[in-house]
């Protein structure tokens, strides 16, 4: 199932249907994003790593999602404007999708099947805090919250999944990206 991640149909934030085939040979970081989340400042780090490594064949792909406390309520145009004016986002953004439940986007079904468990910072307690507020995922492999990240290798295979509280510039994430770029 992993091998067809890149040929999964997606819709750009401008409404154009496409696949991720154009990114074949690149290392990707696929992230479900939101504009009104406590983790939204991660956009800055995502843009930083995009700029640092794009010349090496690295691309961040942002997929807005409104499933977590309605933290991405805007239209695609509002999301695009927010990202570019607030964080200077230049990486590709896509239309709003569901990452959990019956309407889970096929891309996320494939990503989760390939990497059912996310790496989290040691002793972070993020999952426990979410569970204590009644926000634990319905199923163990569900996306926990906004800004969960999937690292995809040049071969289109999932390399690693990172929890929402593991920032893009966390040393573990950075090292994983460097290793994927070296292949």
Automatic annotation (TrEMBL):
The active site is at residue 37. GO terms for biological process: cellular response to oxidative stress. The keyword DNA repair does not apply. Non-specific peroxidase that can use thioredoxin or glutathione as a reducing agent. It catalyses: a hydroperoxide + [thioredoxin]-dithiol = an alcohol + [thioredoxin]-disulfide + H2O; 2 glutathione + H2O2 = glutathione disulfide + 2 H2O. InterPro entries: BtuE, Glutathione_peroxidase, GPX_AS, GPX_CS, Thioredoxin-like_sf. Its EC number is 1.11.1.24, 1.11.1.9. The keyword Oxidoreductase applies. This is Thioredoxin/glutathione peroxidase BtuE. SUPFAM superfamilies: Thioredoxin-like. It holds the Pfam family GSHPx. One of its GO terms (molecular function) is thioredoxin-dependent peroxiredoxin activity. Signal peptide: none annotated. Keywords: Oxidoreductase, Peroxidase. It comes from Enterobacter asburiae. The gene is btuE. Belongs to the glutathione peroxidase family. BtuE subfamily. PANTHER family: GLUTATHIONE PEROXIDASE, THIOREDOXIN_GLUTATHIONE PEROXIDASE BTUE.
